[in-house]
Amino acid sequence: MVRTLTLLDTTIGKKAVMAITGLVLYGFVIVHMLGNLQVFLGPAQLNKYAETLKGTPPVLWGARGVLLASVALHVWSAVSLIGGTSEARKVDYKIRKYGATNGAALSMRYGGFALLAFILFHLAHFTAPGLGLGIYKHSHTDVYANVVSSFSTWWVVAIYLVAQVFLGLHLYHGSWSLLQTLGLSHPRYNRVRNLLPQALGIGVAGGNILIALSVFAGVVR
Ligand code: HEM
């Protein structure tokens, strides 16, 4: 029997899923970074913030559910779009020349999987199952102490720094192509289309790097 094609079977449907879930995750990384910057305001402020977030379990678990579903759907759409591209070209190119667009696409693919690996590391490190991967003594209430003791270890800082480079590039290329898809590839909007993705990528990655390095340098302790 011939199956009817649904919107999710089409490239446009998968791209829409990727764009919507990408926007959800974008919002999360911006809010998460801004929230974490409260480490500069001292332990009482950061711990109060963390306590507030965990204060209403239905809201916390609802938000976690949305995040988890967004990551899963974002990865699913990426994998099936990549699969669709190679399916369409059964015989590989003899010579591959990577121009700017292909370079960006490759960085989205490999950088995306590197980010997924980082998120799993980050969750095991700061959240579940509350053991801090054995790197530091995890506390369920003192998030400030968790952050400070984590970023006192050089290789943990190194992992975070490398991940932020991937994150910054992913946010930059992702928002650039989203704005392009939305039709902003007009000379009148070119400045915004280039500057906004750069500002967001550098802003989020830079804020996170600032936290890790400030702890490592002893500015935050
Ligand atoms: C220097 C950078 C970062 C710091 C200091 C940081 C800190 C933290 C901390 C302390 C927690 C646990 C909060 C708690 O126990 O209440 C957490 C959770 C989390 N972080 Fe980060 N984070 C950073 C970057 C990132 C990035 C770049 C991502 C995503 C790409 C991310 C995704 C998450 C997620 C998904 C959670 C789980 C949230 C939950 O428990 O529901 N974090 N982070």
Annotation keywords:
221 residues; 3 helical TM bundles of succinate and fumarate reductases; globular
Map the helices and strands:
Layout: H1 11-36, H2 43-54, H3 57-88, H4 100-126, H5 143-150, H6 154-181, H7 190-216
Helix pairs in contact: 1-3, 1-7, 4-6, 6-7
This protein binds protoporphyrin IX containing FE.
The site of protoporphyrin IX containing FE has 19 residues, from helix 1, helix 3, helix 4, helix 5 and helix 6.
What does this 3D model show about the protein?
The chain is mainly α. The chain has a single domain (7-89, 102-216), classed as Fumarate reductase/succinate dehydrogenase, transmembrane subunit (3 helical TM bundles of succinate and fumarate reductases). The protein is 72% helix and 0% strand. The chain is built from seven helices and no strands. It has helices at 11-36, 43-54, 57-88, 100-126, 143-150, 154-181, 190-216. α1 (11-36) crosses α7 (190-216), α4 (100-126) packs across α6 (154-181) and α6 (154-181) packs antiparallel against α7. The longest helix is centred in the first third of the chain and has 32 residues, at 57-88. The protein starts with 10 loop residues before the first helix and ends in a 5-residue tail after the last helix. 21% of the residues are buried. The mean pLDDT is 88. Bound molecules: protoporphyrin IX containing FE (HEM). The site of protoporphyrin IX containing FE has 19 residues, from α1, α3, α4, α5 and α6.
